[in-house]
Amino acid sequence: MNRSDTLRRGLLAGIFASLVLALFDFVTDGEPGNGFPGVLHWFGLTMSDPTISHWVGLLLLIVLGGVFGLIFGALGVLWWLLFEVVLANLTNHASSLLSPSFGQFLSSFPLAALFGVLLGAIFIQWQGQHEPRRPS
Amino acid sequence: MSISSSAQKQQRGATTASEESAAAPPITLSERSSTGLALLRILVGYLWFQQLFWKLPPTFAGLYGYVVRESQHAILPGYGTLLQHTFLAGCPSLSSPVGCTAFVPLAACVWTAELLVAISLLFGLFTRFGALLATILSVQLYVGLAYTEWIWTYGMLVLLALVFVAVPAGRRLGVDLWLAPRLRSAAQRHRLASIASWFV
Fold it and tell me: Using the 8-state DSSP alphabet, how is residue B198 labeled?
């Protein structure tokens, strides 16, 4: 498998994994997509129009998923754990590497880890499906 | 000889075909169906995950009202009494768990079991074990709360969990994808791996 194929698979796996996480926002209390403006808050951004902030948040989530997927495709799985901690703390706005609040940790780390597992699983599944079969 | 042999072969062939049509053909799930089931598994896992937050440690106070309701409305004779002598032992009030002797450790067991279900189904990690645990927890909820809400609410939860006991949904979009073949090959040498392979 050549480099561009690996990167493309990483990108698509990242986008798919972020779409699965986006799906969770349609099964939470309140209005569907209420969590998407939160993605903007990870970067300290706010938008006054709630409709636009929902859509831009969703778009940013997908773009982020794609970027992490690309990095995953380029670097492989070894940096995965470090990435999870950084991502979980980014979503928490935590000042230290390990958040002291159990509730905050529980609400963010498993989902960040799920993103990583999905990314890896989708990538490996696609790799398996597209590998040339050897004659037995 | 050749004619009779050919006739015998034809007869044998016809018998085999009729046997095959009589027996149920094996069902193979397509890649899309397996991935779809895996997505459902993740969403059901998220359902369990969300329910951890209204009964967080260290007090697990959110759970208390439900245990009290279960003890009053259980459909199984004796189940209410069992709850009153375990979870609700020594509780001075029906509105707060303060003063209960065994509520916190038992509620911690329930919360941990639900956390295990959530992790198992979200990550596809020993998925069938998680689904089995989810079935037990859901049956318990059904017994205690079925007639306090829409009767199918907890019934559907039981049925959903049973689906994932039956189907190995963690082998797509989950850790079981990586774990299952390794456990299968280790199962020939180790009894523990053989048992663990039932749950992926």
Answer: G
